[in-house]
Design brief:
There is one protein chain. By secondary structure, this protein is α+β, with helices and mostly antiparallel strands. The protein folds into two domains: about 170 residues, Lipocalin (Beta Barrel), CATH 2.40.128; about 110 residues, no CATH class. The protein is built from four helices and 18 strands. It has a ten-stranded antiparallel beta barrel with strand order 1-2-3-4-5-6-7-8-9-10. Strands 12-11-18-17 form a four-stranded antiparallel beta sheet, with no helix packed on it. A four-stranded antiparallel beta sheet has the order 13-14-15-16. The protein is elongated and about 75 Å long. The two termini are about 20 Å apart.
Length: about 325
Amino acid sequence: MQTIRRTSCWRGLVLSILAGFVCSAQAATALGELGQAEGRLQLAQITALLAGVYDNDPQRFYLEGMKRGKTAPPRLHLEIRKSAKMPNSFDVEERDGSEHAPIVRSGTLTLENDAKTRQVVMRLQVAMSATANSARCEWRWRKHLSAWVGEPTENCVGAAGSAGLGGKTLWLAEDALWLQSVGAPAAAAATAGIVDIVELGRANMHECFVAVQARGGEPQIFMGLKTHDRGGTFDIMTKEKLPRKFALTLRRGMWPSNSGNNLLELLTLTAREEGQPVQASSGWATPDSPRVGFGNEEELEAGRSINARCKRNR
């Protein structure tokens, strides 16, 4: 078990950044033209930052822990991968749920400099489903403090109101991608008392190891288990006369504290046995730690003990 080396002002930073984003968006004026070199630099910076795996499970976990679970936006898992189809293009997959949920929207993002202003323009062409009509959307990017903001233009057709990127203002930073509802969807969220900003944390991929020991039996080893650290999960099933199923969750995000005394960001790994009211074991580390794990020396019910660790991929 690693020792916490620092506390985090993550929550305060997020709130202040988002407050600044909203104020800036309201006060934004028309942008002037960029020089050729500046336009090319901004295009390179945005494309270098865009690809990644994103999930808002930590946001939901925090709100639920703070007794505000009813205000949490639905879970969204997003993957953006560099595409070989054309320069500065990306393949996008969106799942309304965890990484195990089916893909409900997929498409292609393309970025280029506007011919006149040289501002970075991003276009999305996405098929909503196998039976629904395709949707498209367009954003114009600009720098704001340490993040990039992509504001949707009027060229959004069939995308507004979906749970994914389409029709939303995008805030892109090193460790997160925020989706902010605008217009009628934002008003509907406010009426329903739901947070209208989806905070998609950028995920790191991990490889995990689990060992389960049964009384009187050989240890059972599970290796090469892969997941992400924004609420990623995987299951293991023991090979015994009465098999048991364990679900493990890896999460990097704010730890809820209703007292306010323990608000800090943690990397946690938890194990829960199916059918049991309490978790089998857990471990935690600082959010920048490359690994996290636990060793449960005490036997679980029926003589079992469980050890696990996850290591971040380079």
